[in-house]
Amino acid sequence: MLNIAVRAARNAGDIIQRASHNVNRLTINQKSQHDFVSEVDFAAEQEIIQVIRKAYPDHAILAEESGEHSGNDYIWVIDPLDGTTNFLHGFPQYAVSIALKVKGKLEVGVVYDPVNDELFTAERGGGAMLNNRKIRVAKQTNLQSALLGTGFPFKSDEHLDAYLAMFRPLCIATAGIRRAGAAALDLAYVACGRLDGFWEIGLQEWDMAAGVLLIQEAGGVCTDFSFNNDYLQTGNLVTGNPKMHQMMFKLIEPHVNEKLTKPRSS
Ligand code: 2AM
Ligand code: CA
Asked: Which of 74, 85, 114, 160 is deepest in the core (most CB within 10 A)?
């Protein structure tokens, strides 16, 4: 199943890279405020679904641009192009993200960066790899030297105050914070130690499913804002090595309100 995920991710990556030379000519639609989708997102998603359907005709699919095809223990969770806004600006930070959930548990995760030809893969119990080499989360235990990733609540200002309240102590406590704009790739960077930790409010399941498994298999910890495992449902995630996660959580926790502990509404 990992092989199928890799084939689908690479094929989608090829479609994306071919289109990257002509972004100005793409048809772009706005899904909601600050949220865009292009014909490349759709084409990449169709390719991924085709590869998966051919190998596993009765598995279910949850994909960003085509919704949920329900009714199975096996669900493929797909973001065909994570970082669409970056892609449309020629900002080379975007990726394909594909995960497989079996009975609600993440079993396979692939994040593919077609710009740098970096393939991040993980299977439950089998470790995490970058281009077939084993990766581990960073060993950093000092917050002052830590480089963190994050994402801003870009869709609405509902959680902006809570987010900014968390941002402040983390900004003061760490060596730096990066907001690169493609959550799946940020998580892959935590898995291979380029980032020491990451947090975000309001992620979708397809943004994080593959990345979460990469981090877990690379020795990291992922929780929601209640220190539980409901990040796929709430969309809120804190992650890093066990010590980093704990230190970040301590600074985030005082600013967590009730809304941030509930399953997301959309
Ligand atoms: P997407 O490109 O697949 O939609 C988390 O920040 C995620 O939100 C990103 O990985 C990105 O995934 C999505 N997103 C959508 N619009 C965004 C925007 N204007 N800025 C940042 N992220 C955006
Ligand atoms: Ca997307």
From this structure: 114
- What is the residue range of 10's domain? 2-134
Among candidate residues 106, 130, 137, the one with its CA nearest the CA of residue 206: 106
Residue with CA at minimum distance from ligand 1 atom 11: 83
Say yes or no to pLDDT of 228 above 80.
Answer: yes
- Structural domain contains residue 266: no
Is 149 found in the same domain as 107? no
Which CATH number characterizes residue 177's domain? 3.40.190.80
Q: Evaluate whether residue 244 is within a structural domain.
A: yes
Q: Is the C-beta atom of 95 inside 6 A of ligand 1?
A: no
Asked whether the CA dihedral 73, 125, 106, 94 is positive or negative, the reply is negative
The type of residue at 217 is E
CATH number at residue 85: 3.30.540.10
Question: For ligand 1, is residue 181 a contact (CB within 6 Å)?
Answer: yes
Same domain for 217 and 125: no
d(CA 77, CA 210): 8
3-state SS string for 163-185: HHHHHHHHHHHCCEEECCCCHHH
Atom of ligand 1 nearest to the CA of 207: 10
pLDDT digits (tens, 9 = 90+) for 84-130: 999 999 999 999 999 999 999 999 999 999 999 999 999 999 999 99
**Residue with the two structure tokens 């992650």:** 239
Within 36-179, where are the H helices?
39-55, 84-88, 160-173
